Amino acid sequence: MKIVKARSIVAAVLVLSVAAVAPAQPVKAKPVDKWVSAEGVAAGTDEKARDAAVAHALRKAVEQACGVFIKAQTKSQDYKAVYDKIFANTVGYVREHKVISVSTDDEKTTARIRARVSTKKFEKDWAAIAHTVDQENNPRVIIAIAEAVHQGTGGPTHTVKDSGAVQGKVEDFFLAKSLRLMDRQTSADVTKRDVLLAAIKNNDKEVAALGARFKADVVVTGRATAKYGKRINVGGQALYQYTGTLSIRVVRTDSAGLLVSKTFGPVTVNTLQRAGGDDKVLAKLGEEFAPKLLAAVVKAWRKQVHVRRNVQIIVTGMDYKAWKDFRDEVKKVRGVEALRLRDITESTATIDVEFQRKTTDLADILTELKKTQLEVTEITANRVKLKVVTKAEAETE
Question: Which of 21, 83, 135, 357 is the most exposed place for a label (fewest CB within 10 A)?
Fold first, then answer.
């Protein structure tokens, strides 16, 4: 051990000595900024259209400056997800820019710019986003699938139990793909049985609320049905035929939004014995459609990292007149693509907004409106709850 240690010290001394006497080699610095010219176009001729045209030109400038790097990433598995997310922050890579000209023609606006783009920051952010995109596309999940093997006069009767044949197969597949199942341990105030009961009632809001208590991002609920079909003869042998179908709904917990609604099947199983065929067809359902179900969940989840997101706005203390003032002001906000009033019930307005940036950015904008003074009371990834601040409340603050 002493000899090895001594050799290590000698080696270190030699390395330091060589470094001391060797002449310093000039290192050619990699350019971190690049000036480019770009052109952007947007529909309309007002100030909002001008902003949109400049924003489009800035995106084109970043794509042009970082084109070689972007092209090298196109073969990566998560290229599209990373691409969409990184271009949500186009302005973050432009050190400075100059608007050379703005022109309008045929109800459209064209902006020409000159921009200095930070290619180093772009590549660094791309690497960081690529590292985390797997987590963003890997939601925390609850799976609750009710199964029916008995046919009543009103149709199949779905039983409520914590683990059935289909659910077990689906959970095992999801776990094998490293998804996080949040319901393997019972929560303090809710069980998976509660989720199943809400799912059978088709109550997405209740399903979402129960899923949120598990700290899950999405809840996968379903109804698996096994049904005896008929007896068939093959080569003198009697076989009993069963069919199975699986209906799935995937609900986002923060807004009760429906992400996926699909039906899989039917599948068929032939068995030599009359008993047990329903269990076999349910197991086949889980094995055959778990991969397709996971693909549907991930595809829906990826929409959350897209440039445009749907944000639900809930405002208490808002009547129809206040809504009109709110609408007229917000629809002019940069980044707002669409604004839809869903309902006003007991002075509470529910509004859907298509927005191009983060939910927190939208919350900041809403609290700075001039006509309607608002205060944020709750915020999640895709929902903002606010209340209208009255003049009396504003004066007391």
Answer: 21
- Cα–Cα separations (whole angstroms), residue 132 to 85, 136, 137, 305, 377: 11, 7, 9, 11, 29
Give dist(CA 304, CA 295) in Å, integer. 15
Number of domains in the chain: 3
Which of residues 395 and 10 earns the better pLDDT score?
395
- Tell whether 155 and 264 lie within a shared domain: yes
Dump pLDDT digits (tens) for 138-184. 677 888 888 887 665 566 666 666 567 888 888 888 887 767 787 65
Secondary structure (H, E, C), 129-192:
HHHHHHHHCCCEEEEEEEEEEEEECCEEEEECCCCCHHHHHHHHHHHHCCCEECCCCCCCCCCH
d(C-alpha 181, C-alpha 214), whole Å: 10
Beta-bridge partners for 151: 156
Is residue 286 classed as helix, strand or coil in its secondary structure? helix
Task: Assess if residue 14 is contained within a domain.
Answer: no
CA distance 344 to 316: 9
CATH of the domain at 264: 3.30.160.150
Residues 297, 260 contacting (CB under 8 angstroms):
yes
Question: CA-CA distance, 315 to 348, in Å (whole number)?
Answer: 6
Predicted local confidence at residue 40, as pLDDT: 94
Q: 367 phi and psi, to 5 degrees?
A: -80, 0
pLDDT in tens, 63-99: 999 999 888 888 876 787 778 778 777 777 898 999 9
CATH number reported for the structural domain that contains residue 322 in this entry:
3.30.70
CB contact at 8 A, 109 and 50: yes
CB 43 within 8 A of CB 108: yes
Under 8 Å between Cβ of 125 and 37:
no
Single residue among 304, 333, 348 that ends a domain in this structure: 304
Separation between Cα atoms, residue 28 and residue 355, nearest integer Å: 43
Q: Is the pLDDT of residue 384 over 50?
A: yes
Query: By residue range, what is the domain housing residue 316?
Result: 309-396
